[in-house]
User: Fold these one by one.
Assistant:
Number 1:
Amino acid sequence: MTQHRVLAGLLAGLTLLLAACGAPSKEYIETGDLDALRERGELRLVAPRFDEEQALVREGVPLQEFREQAEAAALALGLEPRWVYADGTGDLDDMINDGRADMIVSNYSVTEDRRERVAFCTPVAVIDEYLVLPKDREGDRLADLGEITVAVPEDTAYAETAAELAERHDTVTVETLPSGTSDSGLLDAVAEGGYDAAIVDGNMLDSLLMDYDGLRKGPVVTERRRIAWAVRPDNPVLRAAINEFIISHHVSASVQTRAQRDWAAIKEEGVLRVITSNNPASYFLWRGELMGFDYDLTRHFAKQHGLRVRMVVRDSASAMFQALQEGAGDVIAASMTATEERRQAGWRFSKRYLEVHEQIIGRADEEPFESVQALAGRTVAVAPDSAFVDTLRALREEGIAVETRLVPDATSEMLIQRVADGDADLTLVDSHLAALESTYREDIQPLWTLEGTREIAWGLRENQPRLKKQLDAYISRNYKGLFYNVTFNRYFKEPKTIRIHEQYRVEAGKEISPYDDLVKEYALEYGFDWRLVVSQMYQESQFDPDARSFAGAQGLMQVMPRTARQFGFTDVHDPEQGIAAGMAYLEWLEDRFPRRLELAQKLYFGLAAYNAGAGHVEDARRLAQRLGKDPDLWFDNVETAMLLLSRPQYARQARFGYVRGSEPVKYVREIRNRYLGYVEFTEENNISAEPD
């Protein structure tokens, strides 16, 4: 045993000793679903005890990443993660089914036998299982190795694989070790000469073999084994929530970058990252479309310079400024007031693109103020990092005895609702937001408009002089021009449009589509995030079950009837059959691509194949590799090659020939963007979206 493993063993033993001598055990029995877990306040994550050792000592082993993701999933569900441990892999399912734990988080293979006892979540990896052999054992195929004795722990996927090998090959003998034997323990057993071979997961093996000079990787004995977390079979709500987290986590991570950039770097990447807030003025999702005054303006600016925009959502002014400083975005566009206090704090601003007044908002049954002195003795609720705090301070310095109530993380929309509900006396908002809110609600009104105008501008860092120059030039050309005026009127002056936007705006607690419940049911069966499927459904049919394409695709998911029949569905115009057929087809397409693909990339390739066919996507992957791009990454790699396949010189060399590459490129990007919008607007997460 190596020095690293000895040290890890001592640390693990010390941890157990401290736990035994410390606080009383918090063990309890709970078999309920997510609501019951929320009453308890924690999610008990279970792993084999030997996982602690392997996660601590090695880079390249995925266990630590799994642990971090599982803990993040618990926190996202409003639960405190707590780790509990089983003596061996074979005890994991008993611990969750007996109510001593809630979710298995390990390098846990999906097998048919385990499916009978646990409910697997969306796979977090797809791996091969390998034989591990002494280096002096020659042969690259099982048939060439002669008679071998293979060591495996009992009640594991390895044991199932070994049993199948022994059934097919009379040269294989299986020796079963205790279920608590770790992968390192298996390799120790082979290295010490006790056994001829062992079976180990491929995603663990390369790192583990660094400590074993006398061992080598042998032939693959099982291909495409899925690794997944697991919950109790009667916990479908928890399982659905974990599936949603896994997919949204991987998709959002695939678009997030951090770097402080000025104009040259922005142009080089071709993406402008816009930091904003989810509100009806700046940025929101309406049915399946991304909208908002700031969104439309920044997109118009980006289009003139050949850029895409990526929206980075934060929920407060301070969080937006922090994201800007950390390099999570390039510019803040969120109806932000340019104040001297913010300039002194390090902000820089573009030219103003909007001039507003600040208005005191009260309930509709209150008489408007006759003067600003009516504020004396009243309390105004505002966010602590808003420009309104400075305004109220200035009023007090003028001798008006107005009280300030600070409400952390509150938007103007939330504060207006508090006033309407009687939970706040008054609030202070910008006039364009007050006008927007007053269009579709009758329970509030402006009571007083403060003197002077306030300038709304885009926020920047000091080290962005060239981006500021470009933004200033855009504002000078477009301020109160045709595009600007049409856009402003649509969001702030057209009552009918504003009411429609409010009615169908996507937000937490509202339906996205008329088919949400059906989608959730089948998304759980196929392991998708239901919001991804709804995003694809909008792209395909705009939620019309009778939609039909010129090529004959039909229903909500626009599946060809012949394809639907292959999966057992006969009427794709029926919403339930159409949704199920679309998911079955998408799952089938994803399985056509290499197992090494990261989860988000697998989704992107599956979507591209849904639109253009798997053959054309494989052509694009091969072309991407010839062009020196990564065939396992869709955005900016395979999508670039896909565009080239519409040109004769490239199409002639492709196995499946010509394809209108712009269609799958647009298809994948718009579904991904809309999906991230659904995630951020239904859960209020800080997820990035990258619209064209």
Number 2:
Amino acid sequence: MIKTLIFFAVLLGIAFGGSWLADRPGQIIIQWPWLDTGFEVSLLFGALMVIAAMGVAIALWVFVRSIWKSPGAIGGFFSGRRRDKGYKALSTGMIAVGVGDLALAKKHAAKARKLIGDEPMTLMLEAQTAQMAGDATKARQSFEAMLDQDETRALGRRGLYIEAQRRGDADEAMEMAKAATDEGKKTPGWAGTALFDMQTASEDWQGALITLSQNHSNKHVSKEQFRRQRAVLLTAQAFALEGEDNADVRMRPLLLEACKLAPGLVPAATKAADILNELKEYRKASKLIEAAWREEPHPELAMSYAYIKTGDTAVDRLKRIRSLYALMPDHLESKIAMARACLDAREWAEARNLIEPLAQSHLTPRLCMLMAELEEGESHDFGLVRQWLARAVGAHRDPAWTADGQVSDTWQPTSPLTGKLDVFEWKVPVREIAHAFQPILESSELDSDRKSNDDDLLLLPSKDDAEDMVDITDGPKVEAEAAGVVADAEPDVEPASEPATEPAEKPEILEAAAAPSATNSQDETVSDASLTDVDSTDTVDAETIKVASESSEHGKDAVPEKEKTAEGIKSKPKKVEFPMPHAPDDPGPKGDPVPPTPEKRFRLF
């Protein structure tokens, strides 16, 4: 809008100027020294001639300038066209890298290099193509070439850092990360994070503290993350001083600052409380543990709080734990800590009121041990003590210090697998969470099942035992039963056949009786087994199974011809009772399918 107003204002000024010149007639006399006469023109015509002369001069200047610069313009046209082709090849190559087309990426990377030379994106395309092809040497050369240009130096360091990580060269990776963070400009996020992780993995706590401060100033970590990670680093730095001269004095300020930054950091609170306890600063130690207990109740905190003053009696410790219990009365750890103090003070009734509801809701080995101690101390019932100790074996696991699937007895600042900082958590291990809802085998149930099944159990002998039975015992019945056991034990082994001229005593195989026939009016069950002979073998052959199936189809009274020997039909064997009607994992024999009853329909005709 303002430009439009300015345009109309200029146009209006030109109009008023022209009218002013037209209203004031005048003459312009032009006299040249070499001419006798001069030129006389009006003022308006003279102004127009001046303007026309200026236009002609400008046109001539443009014409001459275009002729002068025509070679450069022609060269620029071709170079621009070449550059456009190069950038098009570069774009196509980057897309080919994205989709994983190695051949197309190599083709356009070479074309882009030929057309536009050492452009930053050309080097990037060559490096990515080399990485995709697995050519680490070519990729390294491309990233090193990026270090020569200011625009691509950061990209080259990033690429060399990644290549060093792939080769497992920790020194070069550390060098590239340090080089990226030592510049005066803002540190890139990857460099600060990588340097911090490598310093913590190598337990360089002081260097990690400096890097963490730089990351916080560059806003790569939030304020909460900075406070938590600094507290963990200070705690790790304090733990590293253990065993040195005057360690408690040097550890005290580090642990106090860590507790101030992260009150819920259990290792820092417990260690600081122990140091303050040795320095007889009981009140300050109690406040540290109470602040940590409000954030995260933990058994180590309860233990440190109970033994703040050395030499106290069990009753004094119970009084102290009552104040800690009042802070978080509904928490599991508060109830367990209170129960532990009651057991030490021999307050059996209060301990039972606390432990029994917990044992009924979710049983763990720690609760089982507390119940065993309670039964031993209150009633001296060692039978119940053994029962609770047995239940502790199959109970769900208690929480423990866990990091990356690894369980540790003590807290550690970094992971033993990855070296990451502050990954240890107080929780139930992952492998136990998957089985958290499985039923626990009670010892009482195990005893009852054992008593009920002891009379029904039958020990099946092995092959060697069966042979001993055949040698020791006499009578065809015992030999048949032993041979049947051997056949069942090794059904897939085919023994070598004996010569037909040598008569051998044929073993007997125990077969299941067939079901009663459908034509029978009475409900009869066949519990006796029939014996069949096997021709000079210890296992059941196909012919014997066929005969057994035929006997089951004809009923229990049918005797196949295979069973008849020269001495007549052998006597029935003794009934063998098995402990179960079917295998433990077998749902049991399926009955005959009942035919569906046809629906009744009403017919009109």
Number 3:
Amino acid sequence: MDATFVELSRWQFAAVAMYHFIFVPLTLGLIWILVIMESVYVMTGKQIYKDMTKFWGKLFAINFALGVTTGLTMEFQFGTNWSYYSHYVGDVFGAPLAIEGLMAFFLESTFIGLMILGWDKLTKVQHLAVTFLTALGSNLSALWILVANGWMQNPVGSEFSAETMRMEMTDFWAVVFNPVAQVKFIHTVAAGYTCASVFVIGISSWYLLKGRDVAFAKRSFAVAAGFGLAASLSVIVLGDESGYELGDVQKVKLAAIEAEWETQPAPAGFTLFGIPDDAEMKTHMDIKIPWVMGLIATRSLDTPVIGLKDLIAHNETRVRSGMIAYENLSKLRNNERTDEIVAAFEVHKADLGYGLLLKRYVENPADATEAQIAQAARDSIPYVPYLFWSFRIMVVIGFFFLALFGAAFWVLARGRLEQNRWLLRVLFYSIPLPWIAMELGWIVAEYGRQPWAIGEVLPTFLATSALTTADLIFSISGYLIFYSILLAIEMFLMVKFARLGPSALHTGRYHHERNGNGRSGSAPAAQPAE
């Protein structure tokens, strides 16, 4: 298999996924903020909360439209660029994606139209119900996608069939309630809620710094501060739970994140800082916090976190077992079916994926040399520095947001919001940070399971389609150009309507408030009723 071709296939999917994920988290979080704002409007009848819902809803609609556009092409890539993947695991992987399309996506797409256009057609309670159903649909959509992704990380509820030469589902509910999928879902949506909170509080801070739309900005700020504080705390707590799941089912990823080359005596320390050296398999200048990693990964003080060197040695054993599985599978495919062959295959079937790692070096894994076996075992761990630094930057940003929302909530509660202009500036300039953290989170999640397309089942280099390098260069270029245009459109529209502000809902012109007193740049502007 041409390594350049495989890398280009991976780069294309990564680029499309990461572009798409620019839009997804804001959709997941902003819709619930709209539910909160509209609920207050329904309960109080105050016009300002309706204006808040409509203004932030307009920005939500822009983001939603572009998110759908970038997301539709992702599923097509499984057929165009990853056709063997689709053949090998389609019976399992296709089910949650189909449910997502039929149930969640159509629910979301149907009700968003009513949400945007139904203000004059529906009663207040009916419109709130529509907004809630849009929120439910968007989050259900994320659930089923992350069920599919969680199965890629931890392929439960399925097994390989020697009859069909494919993975087949054995337990649908095991796939749905896969602990990795459930933790990923809650962690991802909580990150989306944090992202939306930063978006709303950052723009509201800009209004307050400019002294315009003050009443609107303060109320939006208050909603985002409370929602964001809860969401950022959830991200950290659920990140800890995600670490525990890694320690249970993805030991290689956990050890790579920690640059834990050697198995440490329990309880293992958390590496706060270090310089991982992948070639020498050691970490220079490491600074550890005692006990922390052991508590996160094992919830105990007496269970060690296995190091990468021991995991490589263990995986070498699995590669050898996979060679036996592949050899007996070849006999079964050639109709050499005896009880002994069937029994031997069943014993070693779980390690077939490790045997397939050898196909990077030799056509028949059963013919692999000792050097090739050792190299395949070494290939079973990802490149450590990428994961080590991506994870730490993500975590630092997460704790920064917890402190930032805590400070915002504190000054708001004390009635000193406008006096703390430094905080307003920090909040405004922090708007890009949640996207940086979440993209790094996806690098940790997806790069961390390499070399597997499906964890311990199908190597990534075997999952591609029969395309040419020229095909991939052409398609990557097309995607990057098209998606960059869409991103530019998103940024232009978001900035345009944010600059116009909520007063445009009533006057179509800029509306300024100085110390709470309405003032327009050219003519008096109507003050929205509170």
